[in-house]
Amino acid sequence: MAQRSALRLGPLLLLSLCASSTPVSLLRRLGEHLGQIQDSSSPSLSLGPGAVAIPKQGWLEQPLDPFNASDTRSFLQRYWVNDQHWTSQRGPVFLHLGGESSLRSGSVLRGHPTALAPAWGALVIGLEHRFYGLSVPAGGLDVAQLRFLSSRHALADVASARLALARLFNVSTSSPWICFGGSYAGSLAAWARLKFPHLIFASVASSAPVRATLDFSEYNEVVSRSLTRTALGGSPECLAAASAAFAEVERRLHAGGATRSALRAELGACSPLDRAEDQAELLGALQALVGGAVQYDAQAGVPLSVRGLCGLLLEGRSNRSRSAPYHGLRRAVQVVMHSLGQRCLSFSRAETVAQLKVTDSQVSGVGDRQWLYQTCTEFGFYITCEGPRCPFSQVPALPSQLELCEQVFGLSASSVVQAVAQTNSYYGGQTPGATQVLFINGDTDPWHVLSITQASGPLESALLIPSASHCMDMAPERPSDSPSLRLGRQSIFQQLQTWLRLAEESQVRSGA
Q1: 58 burial level (CB within 10 Å; 0-12, 13-18, 19+)
Q2: Is 112 a catalytic residue?
Q3: What is the pLDDT of residues 204-221, one digit of tens each?
């Protein structure tokens, strides 16, 4: 968002690190960064001379307002297709749903569902979410236009796309369609089965936060526990060092003068840190850096893992200096800045608000305005650290995060509270009642506390993978994958096998 020129991830992608009072901004940056790295290792496939490259890109015309038949406006929604393994028009279709960012070609080339397609001769399709990537309706991103951005609109797109794509590729009416998705898109996958069981045969929902929550204080509770886990490279000493580092940052901020100026230089801030609101931005960004090391622990391309972060925080402990953990945190910031190609970090609240107000989709970043709108109108998900057991800074507090909804969209805090409650009422929170859905989570991932980690019955399965981070099961397999992750992927395969056997038996009974 703010200081877009400061971060260079590529000629077409101008992002900013930590330029929002919510840590989600940095987490989004890290997620985009990891996705780009993984995509770069998944080139397009060619089937030989004269053959069409895989994947193929296509576009569907979708109604802008699917709930108003008299509104004839439409937009083009992008999709990707990999038919390399598709052996029969009666075979299954694996529909990979996009979430709150651009859906790249890698969605149908790497990880699951693509890795699972050969076993069943499946057609793999990736569907980009409305208002993200290249699927942004004409007319910009003003509030009047954003009225058509919600999970409900996205699900209507899934239903419409499911029917249109079946016709386009001449898929048999008896073919089972199985949705896949990770994070918010994982929730969409589960909800697609919940709301459209006649169209979606089953769903695999990875790291899916199906319970909306205003104050997501549980996030940092998981982060704290993870920093103490020896299996991840953490320890109680690491957590204590992280807490000491934050206390030292706050001490230097409050000292003012030359001490604060030195802090600005050491942490690579683009501008002075004299305003309380900008100091809160800094502290929120540092929390996000620590949270990101946990959320994306041990994934390919991650700048810092728990082990790496703890190593930095504890590097100077032998000299028993009060500032040793702080210097470790400073080095962690430098590692992330270098990895993401950024020369300095913007912590200006004013610049954050200004960038979030930009309604031109060509210059509004990678979906930050859109995703903020969805948090304000549906989900909340505001990560806080106000509890007495939270070891990090207690700022930014919830009120300052809710204030963004008012400043950017004119939405009051009370309306956000009501929207979160309505979301849980509509979808059922952590008791959605959907059948033939497999919820997959890693116990390292802070988002697992908003998902479903225990099966509620034979038709709603859950898998909690020890020491796995956010959406790790979806990533391409690596030699370094843990035994628990390998076993988790086997469980996913077995669940699909069970579902597709049911589908096949149903086809036989119906004579399809």
Answers
A1: middle
A2: no
A3: 999 999 999 999 999 999
